[in-house]
Design goal:
Elements lengths: L3 H17 L9 E5 L14 H7 L8 E3 L5 E3 L2 E6 L5 E6 L13 H12 L14 E8 L2 E6 L6 H4 L26 E7 L3 E6 L12 E6 L3 H10 L4 E2 L8 H5 L4 E16 L9 H10 L2 H9 L3 E3 L22 H10 L6 E7 L3 H15 L3 E7 L2 H10 L5 E6 L20 H11 L4 H17 L4 E13 L2 E2 L16 E2 L2
Parallel strand pairs: 1-10, 1-11, 14-15, 14-16
Antiparallel strand pairs: 2-3, 4-5, 5-7, 6-7, 8-9, 9-10, 11-17, 12-16, 12-17, 13-17, 18-19
Helix pairs in contact: 7-9, 8-10, 12-13
């Protein structure tokens, strides 16, 4: 009988022997690092991008899905037809689809999901996606009609957001902790503070996932993330949190470094309803006090594109407005004096955990101090930030990256945490919603970008780069991130 000590020695020596033979230990799946742990796992009732980072396209699916190139593709709806006036969408559903608990998916689930998301008591973070919907009619189990109040040129794209995934009435109340969807992976367990594990769903209606298991391991500290990748404790990060380590990975033949685009507009969020930030001159002073490139170099080690409004440079309607408020501390001090603050003022800067926010916050505080604005930095955990800043609007300033696709419409929401109220901007968004012509939509979007820039609603910093670092043998990872999550069904570890 082999002793316990002998068994331990074998376990310790085996990886060394395999490495010496040029072999890898057998792998059941893929282990990915994530910096932020999601506060819950229901993408229809939470704003954190980390939720979609785990479950979008993996556990939950929508009528449509957004591919990594930004295109709209069929998902639970295999096809659709649109009326000539753009007011009626008939979705033809995939047959024989079941939720992970065995419940059949049909048109009644579509009606339930869309009506639940748009209900007055809904906690959906993107209720605006569902505003155009007038009614949802079940034609038969595999066909459902969605009637709109007005034409919505981006309706199919919006149905591919994580906020619009399909859920089952019985399991929906528990999706925050035990998510039940229709996707290629099913939820296995969640060890709070450590990891979430998904397993390939063998009864999936579509092409089976290439990996038997996906595990997300939460590593908040950038130094720990670096160590975990080097040691092989994780196979990589889709969004690597420590850009300062990239040169080391780029020269190491074991790893691949991939820089892509995201929809992440990184901003200095300003509470427009709290003094003195309701004063346009104060907000413009802050804009002139910000040195974007210094923040990009210091917080992102040069990885980022300066922006002058809340819009992605990758979009064809993008307008470069970075010159509207050039870095000019002298001008900032003049504006503060005109606003009645010749000696400046003191304010709080509440920062969520990501390194871009923590590092960027230190740099920003030093920049604003040069014009007389003293910032008290308060570092917060993600749940605290969501509660105090995003939900209860209890903040002066904050730094955060908004990763929702094409989300300029949030500036038309009076209850949004910026608390910016503009009838003119809302009129622009109403026009956009009624417009299907591509050229006209682009023209409206350019005007919208300019308005929020002129109003200095927030301090617009940089477009977040998607920094991927992973083992060279890991295949199928997304390069770009047009949405907050990515479908991992094509990801596998090459043997």
């Amino acid at each position: 009988m082999v002793s316990r000590v002998s068994r331990v020695l074998v376990l310790l020596i085996l990886p060394i022997l395999l490495a010496a033979c040029g072999q890898s230990a057998p792998r059941e799946g893929v282990v990915l690092g994530m910096q932020l742990e999601p506060p819950g796992l229901d993408p229809t009732s939470g704003a954190a991008g980390a939720i979609d980072g785990v479950v979008y396209g993996n556990v939950f699916e929508g009528l449509t899905r957004i591919h990594q190139d930004g295109s709209v593709q069929p998902a639970l709806a295999r096809s659709w037809t649109i009326s000539a006036d753009g007011l009626e969408y008939v979705f033809h559903l995939q047959p024989d689809v079941r939720f992970h608990d065995g419940s059949l998916f049909d048109a009644s689930d579509v009606k339930f999901s869309l009506e639940r998301a748009s209900a007055p008591q809904s906690t959906n973070a993107q209720k605006g996606l569902f505003v155009p919907i007038e009614a949802v009619e079940i034609l038969d189990p595999l066909n459902v009609k969605v009637v709109l109040k007005y034409p919505a040129g981006d309706f199919l794209f919006n149905m591919g957001w994580g906020d619009a995934v399909m859920v089952d009435p019985l399991s929906a109340p528990h999706n925050g902790t035990i998510p039940v969807g229709t996707g290629p992976f099913r939820f296995v367990d969640w060890h709070k503070g450590y990891a979430i594990t998904l397993q390939r769903h063998d009864a999936y209606w579509g092409a089976p996932a290439k990996s038997a298991q996906i595990q997300f391991v939460f590593i908040t500290d950038p130094a720990a993330a670096y160590a975990a990748v080097l040691a092989g404790d994780v196979d990589g990060f889709s969004a690597y949190p420590a850009p300062e380590n990239l040169p080391a990975f780029e020269v190491d033949p074991r790893f691949e470094v991939v820089i892509g685009a995201t929809e992440g507009e990184t901003i200095l969020a300003i509470n427009n309803a709290r003094a003195p930030f309701g004063n346009l001159l104060v907000r413009r002073a802050i804009a002139h006090a910000i040195n974007r490139q210094e923040i990009i170099d210091g917080a992102m080690f040069g990885r980022g594109i300066p922006i002058g409004s809340h819009f992605s440079p990758a979009h064809r309607a993008y307008e470069d407005l970075t010159g509207m408020y050039a870095y000019d501390p002298s001008r900032a001090r003049v504006l503060l004096a005109q606003a009645g603050y010749p000696d400046g003022f003191t304010a709080s800067l509440k920062l969520p955990p990501p390194s871009y926010a923590r590092r960027g916050g230190e740099i920003l505080a030093a920049q604003l101090a040069k014009v007389g604005i003293t910032l008290r930095i308060e570092n917060m955990e993600w749940a605290q930030w969501l509660d105090q800043v995003f939900t209860n609007k209890d903040y002066d300033l904050s730094i955060v990256s908004h990763t929702e696709p094409m989300d300029i419409g949030i500036y038309g929401r009076d209850d949004y945490y910026f608390q910016y109220k503009s009838a003119a901007f809302k009129t622009l968004m109403d026009r956009l919603a009624l417009t299907n012509d591509a050229a006209e939509r682009e023209a409206i979007l350019r005007v919208a970008q300019r308005q929020i820039a002129e109003d200095s609603v927030n301090g617009f910093l940089f477009q977040f780069a998607k920094i991927g670092v992973w083992d060279k043998r890991l295949k199928g990872m997304w390069t770009d991130a047009p949405i907050q999550g990515e479908n991992l069904s094509e990801v596998y570890f090459e043997r």
